[in-house]
From TrEMBL:
GO cellular component terms, A-Z: endomembrane system; membrane
Biased composition annotated in UniProt, kind: Polar residues: 506-529, 645-655
Name the record gives this protein: NADH:quinone oxidoreductase/Mrp antiporter transmembrane domain-containing protein
Domain of life from the UniProt record: Bacteria
């Protein structure tokens, strides 16, 4: 309950007391909210059961029920960490100037930040579909204004498009909830699940009521619009790229995950058997389209923030691959030895590691825009000397997005790969691998431009560089391509010290008239702003810290993720039982604990050397030198080559 009360009260007090007080209250709320999230997660892990609370003592359906299971606890903690980092980062951008009593933009940002935090917490702990509707609406109406804080025509247009898609999703969701209430007389997720099973929805050939089918279709479509899954993604790139860097980080890391979480709950907690395996394949197909389209579009972008926005579109696609992998009729050894399905752990790891990596990337892009006065990828030369910490953080976040060891993204994608092969759905492995290649391609563009660009050498020292920084125009050679002509016709960028972080991140080249008396000659747009460091080192360290968390998730032993099974066993997962029976598997119910027998994400480096198990086989055991979970073991690890073996043994011994 305090997870909702604290940010709401802080938001109200800040709004009433003004911008300066709102900033102070928000900064005081950050550690308090983080401490509450840590305490809740620790309590759930210690008790081994979900936490439930009925507001006012009224049980559902008369009252409002709140529930925190293992997944909710992880998402609450992730939200608190990301918002704490964003809040500390945003102090320099949204501080009230000392010479004014009140500032509208800082007041709006800090109150919206706190309201968004409360909305996300409500989404993650809500148990009633109508209350979840209220929470998702609060999330929308706090996220949309963050897009247009700058007030420019471009950001207003992006915010309006976002709002239209979000409202469409809200209407569809509410219609679906109304149909479910009319059919079953309750909107509590637990009671709805019990009612559906009682009416035969959990049978091998379920007798699904038409109203329930229509409700599921409407609610899923509405939430897909809010999640920006292809083809309902048109609002995401301009909204995430046009918002201030701090707002972009929250939108990409957290906001789109809220609606995805509700889709997941509808499928797993409420109606995992209403839709067949073919429908799950359809959702994953849309996810695969997002991976490919987002990656290709990111490669084509000329602006850094737009590239990161399309990267978000691609990374969201991986989350939808878990549906066919988790509800597959071939759940193989994880059912026999009591282990956690690989797709389950991999999907959550993908969600969490992407949140930290993408928040770090967007905030790093904001610092780059301040330092260089623009975010044009082709003109990032000199960045490796100007902002080395930021560039390192960007590279580390990129490692996680690509899925390279030892990052959390590697652990997530490896688990998804194993799940795809173990369940016989090999085609998803091609999507995952090709998506990683696309990710590496567009990230290499950024790192290469920042580290090896010709403009980097031009900035070292020289008459041309000095003349450019002083605003002296020089004739250009004949331009060969239309793209070069567009660059050549652009005016010189403003000095970094004069460009706000919001404006700098969305600057676009404009054509300018030719110089008098010089027909065919144009002003040079290749002039670089005078490089300086107008950003605090502390802001770079915040960006680096979030990137390191994304990497560190790959070093956490998988036994630590047993918290994800709390509240996921029992009735909800038992509803998957009919899906396993057609394949000849015995009925099952996932326990409250148990993990895949690999001691840590880095231990995957050893298991890579083993042959993958067959569909009806069992998972290979871990190396003898590493601790293993009790259970059947039919294979051992072959001796590794010296270099790989040394790395694997060193990493596998990590706690």
């Amino acid at each position: 309950m305090m997870l909702l009360v604290v940010p709401v009260l802080a938001m109200l007090f800040g709004f009433v007391l003004g911008s300066r007080a709102a900033e102070r209250i928000a900064l005081l709320t950050l550690p308090l909210g983080l401490a509450l999230a840590v305490a809740v997660a620790a309590l759930v892990l210690d008790q081994g059961t979900p936490l439930s609370y009925d507001i006012g003592g009224w049980a559902s359906p008369l009252g409002v029920a709140l529930r925190v299971d293992g997944l909710s606890a992880v998402l609450l903690l992730t939200t608190a960490l990301v918002i704490t980092g964003v809040g500390l980062y945003a102090r320099a951008d949204f501080a009230t100037p000392a010479d004014v009593d009140e500032a509208r933009t800082p007041l709006a940002f800090w109150t919206l930040l706190l309201g968004l935090w409360a909305a996300l917490n409500a989404v993650f702990i809500g148990q009633d579909l109508f209350n979840l509707y209220v929470a998702i609406e609060l999330l929308t109406f706090t996220a949309v204004p963050l897009v247009c804080l700058k007030g420019s025509a471009e950001t207003l247009q992006a915010a309006l498009r976002y709002l239209l898609f979000a409202l469409l999703g809200s209407v569809l969701y509410l219609l679906g909830a109304a149909l479910l209430y009319g059919a079953y007389g309750t909107l509590d997720i637990g009671q709805l699940a019990a009612a559906m099973r009682g009416s035969g929805l959990a049978a091998a050939e379920p007798a699904v009521e038409p109203a329930a089918i229509a409700a599921v279709v409407l609610m899923t479509a509405g939430l897909l619009a809010k999640t920006a899954l292809v083809p309902l993604h048109l609002w995401l790139p301009p909204a995430h790229a046009g918002a201030p860097a701090a707002a972009s980080a929250i939108l990409s890391a957290l906001v789109v995950k809220g609606s995805f979480y509700l889709i997941f709950r509808l499928w797993i907690d409420l109606m995992p058997v209403v839709y067949t395996q073919q429908i799950a394949q359809g959702l994953a197909t849309l996810g695969a389209a997002a991976i490919l389209l987002g990656g290709i579009m990111a490669i084509r972008q000329a602006r850094l923030k737009m590239l990161i926005a399309y990267s978000t579109l691609a990374q969201l696609g991986y989350l939808f691959l878990i549906f066919p992998l988790l509800v597959s009729p071939v759940l193989v050894p994880t059912l026999a030895d009591g282990s956690t399905p690989a797709a389950w752990t991999g999907g959550v790891l993908q969600l969490v590691s992407h949140a930290f990596a993408k928040a770090s990337m967007f905030m790093g892009a904001g610092l780059i825009a301040i330092a260089l006065g623009h975010d044009r990828i082709a003109d990032l030369g000199g960045l490796s000397r100007l902002l080395p910490i930021t560039l390192v953080a960007f590279a580390l976040s990129g490692l996680s997005l690509m899925g390279l060891p030892p990052s959390g993204g590697f652990a997530a994608k490896w688990l998804l790969l194993r799940a795809a092969i173990e369940t016989g759905q090999w085609w998803w492995t091609l999507v995952i691998l090709f998506g990683g290649v696309l990710t590496g391609t567009y990230l290499y563009r950024v790192l290469a431009a920042a580290s090896f660009s010709e403009s980097d050498a031009d900035l070292a020292a020289g008459p041309a560089s000095r003349r450019q920084s002083e605003g002296v125009s020089e004739p250009l050679p004949k331009l060969a391509t239309g793209a070069s002509a567009e660059l050549a016709s652009a005016p010189p960028p403003e000095p970094a010290s004069e460009v706000s972080p919001e404006r700098a991140s969305v600057q676009s080249p404009r054509s300018s008239s030719q110089l008098p008396g010089q027909t065919g000659q144009v002003q040079s747009a290749q002039r670089q702003p005078r490089l300086q460091r107008p950003v605090a080192r502390s802001r770079e360290l915040i960006v680096l810290a979030l990137a390191l968390i994304s990497i560190a998730l790959g070093l956490v032993p998988l036994t630590s993720f047993e918290i994800l099974q709390i509240g996921r066993g029992g009735e909800a997962m038992a509803m998957l039982e009919p899906l396993a029976e057609p394949a000849g598997l015995s009925a099952f119910e996932l326990p409250a604990s148990g993990v895949t027998p690999v001691p840590s994400a880095t231990g995957f480096l050893a298991s890579v050397m083993e042959p993958l198990p067959g569909v009806a086989g069992s998972l290979p055991s871990a190396p003898e030198s590493l601790p293993t979970v009790a259970g059947p073991s039919t294979s051992s690890v072959a001796p590794l080559p010296s270099a790989v073996g040394a790395q694997s043994s060193a990493m596998g011994s990590l706690p």
